[in-house]
Amino acid sequence: MAWQLFRLGRWSFRHRWTVVGIWTLLLLTIALGAATLSGKTNDNFELSGLESTQAFDLIKDRDPEAAPDGATARVVFQAPDGASLTDSAHRQAVTDALTALTTENVLAVLDPFTTGAISEDGRTGYASVSYALSAADLTTTDREALETARDIAERAGLTATVGGDVLGVEMDGALAELIGIAIALVVLALTFGSLLAAGMPLLTALVGVGIGIAAIATLTGFTELSTTTPALGTMLGLAVGIDYALFILSRYQTEARQGRPLEEAAGRAVGTAGSAVVFAGLTVIIALVGLSVCGIGFLTEMGLGGAFTVAIAVLVALTLLPALLGCAGARVAGRRARSPKKHTAAPGPDDTTATPRTLGRRWVEGLARYRWPALVAGIAIAAVAALPAASLQLALPGDSTKPAESDARVAYDLISTEFGAGANGPLLVVIDTDQSPDPAAAVDIATETLATLAARDGSHIAAVIPALTSDHPEAVHAYTRQLETARFATLTVIPAAGPSDQSTKDLVADIRATLADLPDHTGARAMVTGLTAVDVDISNELIDVFPLYLAVVVGLAVVLLIAVFRSIWVPIKAALGFLFSVGASLGATVAVFQWGWLNELVGLDATGPVLFLLPILLTGILFGLAMDYEVFLVTRMREAYVHGTPARQAVIDGFTHSARVVGAAALIMVGVFAGFTLTDDIILKTIGFALAVGVLVDAFLVRMLIVPAAMFIIGRRIWWMPRAMDRLVPTVDVEGEALAGRLAHHETNYASRPDTETARAPENNTSDGPDRSSTRELIV
Questions:
Q1: Angle at 450 between CA 447 and CA 456, to 5 degrees
Q2: Residue 178 burial by CB count (10 A; 0-12/13-18/19+): exposed, middle or buried?
Q3: CA 475 to CA 101: how far, in whole Å?
Q4: CA-to-CA distance for 780 and 775, rounded, in angstroms?
Q5: What is the b/e burial string over 683-702, where b = at least 16 CB atoms within 10 angstroms of the residue's CB?
Q6: Looking at the DSSP assignment, which residues form a beta bridge with residue 73?
Q7: What is the model's pLDDT at position 353?
Q8: How much is the pLDDT for 167?
Q9: Which of 141, 387, 482, 658 is deepest in the core (most CB within 10 A)?
């Protein structure tokens, strides 16, 4: 493979304008498709086959008007101190405001004076509004009606605040992307010492992200995707795109500084570092595509979208980057590239000019001397950092975690203060009476059972609202019609605690257990739904599929790494090191988001459970990225080892060559992910923070401390693989051993010709362009 990549890199360098033109045309074409065909995304986390979703499906099938699946709004009204909403003027203002809310897409508006949603002091009340369309599909008229209702209330001296999912999710990652790009530019400039060289990885990464996100946007015109999908694609595409180009460009400069002609240097860089990029990219793609084994729609979308942008990043790094290097000539090749020296072989492992006393070399030599203390200290630090993860609580994102000044958060806090935290997340108990001989009796028994549960100490129920809440003839008629025609009834349970509180989640299980024998006594069955019930069901489903996902992803990645390193212990060590990274990342996330430690640094003013999909999503993404650094770091060690360097020295030499670039790549990736912690959206904020901490821990604690210390302890046995497996596993030559031998063979044959010195003569080449004389005779 290294030879084929060498030819690809050299061809791209030589046919630079063709490659640039192809990528430019592709970017413009897909961008045109995105501009003309893109649709809307949704912010709903839905999963079929759960009790909570089955309950909604039942209502929708039997009484569609009673089960609106569109957006909902809660309009909270509050009178000034000393006044009441029941005052005639204020009551009329509320009525007028609710009338103004009505549009053709509004299914129902529940008046607080009718439903009893008025606080004890009469100052606060809230109205619930149900829409036929999702938040993303609401029209300008619908949103203007909300503003009109607010204006009517405020002109009457009331405070009006709108909450609920009608506001949708605005995932504006522009600021995060700019911050990540700025950090990347600084790190790249310090790494390469040239703004031109620093700009190339940024340019290629932006091209890859542009193509990936435009393709995802085009796809939304044909199918509905999660709002998080393009945001996650941007995050990953930008991070890995810069890193992959960084590794190839760094190797290109190394080859050029050894005196190789620029065209050959580009080919060698793609053939060696590019091989590592291919396999590093494959590990990330495997981890992301593996999310589809969970069978959860929104996770599959996010995984496939992220995998697509990573694949584009790999292709761009392998082709567009060498083409741009060809356009730039010697200006990004390094200080020695303008007057290359004649060479016959790469520097040997004992060549002090090839391995200067850098900070990385001094660090790894120190690890070689103190390997046991370093290993113990690294594991201890990772273990302590992971301790908070033992208290991990998961929940769906809600209004309680939004910024304090946002309308949604203000409305949530008002309802919690005046009506109890549970009013923000009522549970709906659906009684399916289709098989019951006496439907009314079945509903009565269920209501009495829940009332008994509420009266029991520790039940955590604030109120049980029966299906029939009024003796009014119209209410009785509607209740009777629902039992007779739709064959179901709904009870509402108001928890004492908020939707994300653990006691509320426990209440879902208690209600289900209490009503489990209802079919035996009445022939009817009870199903619990609502925001908290959906939260519990999805979280349990993710926990159930997590072992399968981990087995598939880690298994495939270990097999891939066995082929890369031709070793059993290196992949196992890499996977074990990943556990430290994900543990520390989850621990830090719990400490900041759930416990509130230093949460102001990421713009949080409230604490709560962690995003429910974070563990499985973090595991997949971070595993792929962790294997990236394992491949990039250990590949150079393997390269030195297969060229005859003793195992201990190979670790030192490989670390010395790779540490600076791996460290720069990690800092860039941390900067990109950390930029997303400054967004207002809790989903992006949580994912960005967890990935930033995970990459930081993995690159600097695991890969640069624990891994080399363990390799020094194990010694040459780290490269052991059974002979039977060695014969079965294909040779991929990621370290470029076969490539180096093949090129050396051609160089030897070429140097033996009588006109070699005249033909090569790089010393006399004064052109800034590439010297093709030594590569012209290589196989095309």
A1: 145
A2: exposed
A3: 24
A4: 9
A5: bbbbbbbbbbbbbbbbbbbb
A6: 129
A7: 42
A8: 67
A9: 658
Q: What is the pLDDT of residue 504?
A: 87
For 86, the token pair is 């029941």
Strands 610-611, 394-395: pairing kind: parallel
φ/ψ of 129, rounded to 5, equals -120, 130
List, for the chain, all residue ranges whose pLDDT scores fall below the cut of 50. Answer: 337-354, 750, 755-780
Q: What is the pLDDT of residue 203?
A: 93
User: How far apart are the C-alpha atoms of 96 and 93, rounded to whole Å?
Assistant: 5
623 alpha-carbon distance from chain centroid: 12
Angle at 582 between CA 577 and CA 583, to 5 degrees: 95
- Return the SS3 of 467: coil
Contact 445, 436 (CB under 8 A): no
Closest CA to 673 of 181, 137, 5: 181
- Asked if 361 and 652 touch (Cβ cutoff 8 Å), the reply is yes
Distances (CA, A) of 462 to 121, 425, 428, 535: 18, 12, 14, 20
Q: How many CA atoms lie within 13 A of 735 on its CB side?
A: 20
Determine which helix (DSSP H) or strand (DSSP E) holds 125, and give its type and residue range: strand 124-131
* Lookup: tokens for 566: 């031709």
Nearest to 11 by CA among 203, 205, 264, 281: 264
Q: Which helix (H) or strand (E) holds 315?
A: helix 297-328
- Looking at residue 320, what is its pLDDT? 96
What lies within 8 Å, CB to CB, of 764 at 6+ separation is none
Question: β-strand 124-131 against 72-78: which pairing, if any?
Answer: antiparallel
249: tokens are 């460009």
Q: What is the pTM of this model?
A: 0.83
Rounded Cα distance, 715 and 463, in Å: 66
Gap between the terminal Cα atoms of the chain: 15
Give 42's DSSP letter: B
Whole-number Å distance between alpha carbons of 455 and 514: 13
CA distance 538 to 686: 18
| Alpha-carbon span 325 to 250, nearest angstrom | 12
- Asked if 386 and 96 count as a contact pair (C-beta separation under 8 A), the reply is no
Q: Show the tokens assigned to 469.
A: 């809440």
Nearest alpha-carbon partner for 668 in 183, 246, 175, 174: 183
The pLDDT assigned to 68 comes to 56
d(CA 629, CA 567): 17
DSSP secondary structure of 471-510: -SHHHHHHHHHIIIII-EEEEEEEESS-TTSHHHHHHHHH
**Residue 553: what pLDDT?**
81
Between CA 769 and CA 65 the distance in angstroms is 72
Using the CB atoms, write b or e for 40-61: b if 16+ within 10 Å: ebbbbbebeebbbbebbebbee
Residue with tokens 């809440």: 469
Q: Which residues, other chains included, contact 113 with Cβ-Cβ below 8 Å and sequence gap of 6+?
A: 86, 91, 94, 125
